[in-house]
Structure formats: C-alpha cells, structure tokens
C-alpha cells in the first residue's frame, strides 16, 4: 500500500488553536497492528448504523476480521461497503474510514499471513485459525481511505488520506 497524504483534520473553529506535532503513519499503523479489540461500524441499506466490537488483524495495510456471513455487520457490508474501524481508546484515537468487503477465498500466502497474525495476537485467548479456515468464506477486509489519529487532541491530530486504486 502506498504512503498516505498527511494533513490536519478539519474541525469547527475553536477546536484547535496551534497543533505542534504530526503523528507518523508508522506509529499509527503499529497501533492498528497491536490492538486486540476494534469497533466496527457498518450501515444498513436503510441507513441504520450498527457498531460491534470484534477481533481482527492489520496485515498489508488493510484490516481483516472474520465471522459468520449471517451477522448484522456482514449483511450490512453486503449492502453498503462504507465502514469505520475504531480502536478502543477515546484519548489515543485511531479512526479508519474505508470500504469493507468479503474476501471469498484468500490466496494461500495471504491466508498464511492472516492465520499467523491472528495466532500471534489471540492464541493466549484461545483463537488460532488455520490458513484454510476461510476457504468457504467468513473473511472480510477493510481497505482504508482515510485515517484520523491523535495522541493529544490539541497537539497532534493528524489525517492520513490514501490514494484510491
């Protein structure tokens, strides 16, 4: 994935006065890789939002999660691919806006990388998927379009925009 364009997020007048620092994409990506819990927000075809906490992995510049195609969020993704992924913290924030989609059958190298990433993160919690686990579906990917992040809202809010295509 190519490097994102970096800028300040737009906030209404009075929210920020003179931010002094920028976050580095490598720092934000490391937080996305290290997180154990993520919040996924999807929207139904009727416009109803749905938020759900879940496990996932950040691999190759994208967020992956798995689960039943019968879940509300999977059904929402089928109808409307616009999603948000948010880390747990409301102080050290990472918000990923992007497009979510089903990954019907990942290529073996990707499946192996995903299984390893899940195992490294969640083995102590009892989850170690095999690379073949997603051969029949149940795997989803979020491709980031924009990421907002900060460690100190008044000093370092940073927006990362990813080129499309």
From TrEMBL:
<protein>
    <submittedName>
        <fullName>Pyridoxamine 5'-phosphate oxidase family protein</fullName>
    </submittedName>
</protein>
<dbReference type="InterPro" id="IPR052019">
    <property type="entry name" value="F420H2_bilvrd_red/Heme_oxyg"/>
</dbReference>
<feature type="domain" description="Pyridoxamine 5'-phosphate oxidase N-terminal">
    <location>
        <begin position="26"/>
        <end position="129"/>
    </location>
</feature>
<dbReference type="InterPro" id="IPR011576">
    <property type="entry name" value="Pyridox_Oxase_N"/>
</dbReference>
<dbReference type="Pfam" id="PF01243">
    <property type="entry name" value="PNPOx_N"/>
</dbReference>
<keyword id="KW-0560">Oxidoreductase</keyword>
<dbReference type="InterPro" id="IPR012349">
    <property type="entry name" value="Split_barrel_FMN-bd"/>
</dbReference>
